[in-house]
Amino acid sequence: MRRSLSLAALVSWRVLALAGALAGATSAAATPSVASDVFTDQQKAGIQKVIHDYLITNPEVIREAIDELKKREEAAELASREKAVNENGDKIAHSANQAVVGNPDGEVTLVEFFDYNCGYCKQSLASVSKLIESDPKLRVVLKDFPILGADSVETAHVATAARMQLSPAKFWEFHKKLLSTRGHIGKAQAVAAAKEVGADMDRLEKDSNSPETQAALKEVATLAEQLKFDGTPSWVIGKEAIVGGLPFAQLKAKVDNMHKCGKTSC
C-alpha cells in the first residue's frame, strides 16, 4: 500500500509538470492545489489522453518508475536504520537488559533480535553457535523480541527472568535448549528448560512478571521499532541493521569484515 501511494504521488507530480508545459503555464512546478485550478475540463481531458497514449505506447515506463521508487524507498530505509543504530548504539550493544554470550570483551559484536517460536531463528541458532565456537573474539548479544503471539510473550518473560539469575554460560545452554525445541512453545517449555539448567524456580516465577522484566522487553520492542524491525531474526552488525535470516557464509563474511576493516563490507 505504501508503495502504491508513493507511486501515485510520483506520477501525479509528473502529470502536473507535463500539464503545465502543455497548457503553457508559467511554472511547471506549480503546487497540485494551484495547478488543478488553472486547467479547463477540455485541457484536463487532453492531458489525460496524452498521458494515457504515452503509457500505452511505452508501458515499460511504469515498471521503471516502480523499480526506481523501490530503490529510493530501500535507500531511505537503510539510512533510517543506520541513523537509529548511531543514536541507540549503547542500548543496542551494551544494555543491562540483554544476554551476552561468546566473548564478553570481544572486539566485534553481533546483535540478534529473535523470537523463540521463529522458525528462521531456530535455523540461525546453528550459525550463531558455529560463529561463537570458531571466533574467540566475537561477542554476541541476544535480544528477546516476542512478536509471534501470546505464547512467545510468555516465553520471553520466563527467558528474561532466567537471564537475570543464570550465568552467561548457563543462559546460553538454556537458550539453545529452548530454541532447539521442536514445534510451538510457550511458558511450560520455557519453565522446563530453565529447571533443567538449574534455575531457582521460586525466583523465576517471581521475576517473570516483575517490573524489571517488563521494562527489559519494552526496551527491546522500542529499539526494534526505531530500527524498523518487523520480523525475526533481525541483526545489528557494526552500523548495519538487517531484517531476515542470513546464511552462515554471509553472516560470517560480515563478522570477518568487521574484524578486518571495522565495517560489514570492506
Q: Care to describe what's here?
A:
Strand 4 (234-237) and strand 5 (240-243) form a beta hairpin. The radius of gyration is 26 Å and the shape is elongated. The chain is built from twelve helices and five strands. It folds into two domains: 2-87, no CATH class; 90-261, 3-Layer(aba) Sandwich (Glutaredoxin). It has a five-stranded mixed sheet with strand order 1-3-2-4-5, sandwiched between helices. The two termini are 36 Å apart. Helix 1 packs across helix 3 (41-57) and helix 7 packs across helix 11. It is an alpha+beta fold and 266 residues long. It has helices at 2-23, 32-35, 41-57, 60-87, 89-94, 119-134, 150-165, 168-179, 187-196, 201-208, 211-226, 248-261, and strands spanning 99-102, 108-114, 138-144, 234-237, 240-243.
Helix and strand element order: HHHHHEEHEHHHHHEEH
Rg over alpha carbons: 26 Å
Structural class label: alpha+beta
Which runs of at least 5 residues are low in confidence (pLDDT < 50)? Answer: 1-35
Number of helices: 12
Write down the domain tally.
2
Shape: elongated
Helical residue percent band: 55-70%
User: In percent, how much strand structure appears in the residues?
Assistant: 5-15%
- How many strand elements? 5
Overall mean confidence score, pLDDT: 87
Termini separation: 36 Å
Strand adjacency order, main sheet:
1-3-2-4-5
Tell me the name of the CATH class of the largest domain: Alpha Beta
Q: Per CATH, which architecture of the largest domain?
A: 3-Layer(aba) Sandwich
Q: Which sheet architecture does the biggest sheet show? A: 5 strands, mixed
Query: What is the H level of CATH, i.e. the homologous superfamily of the largest domain?
Result: Glutaredoxin
Question: What is the CATH topology descriptor of the largest domain?
Answer: Glutaredoxin
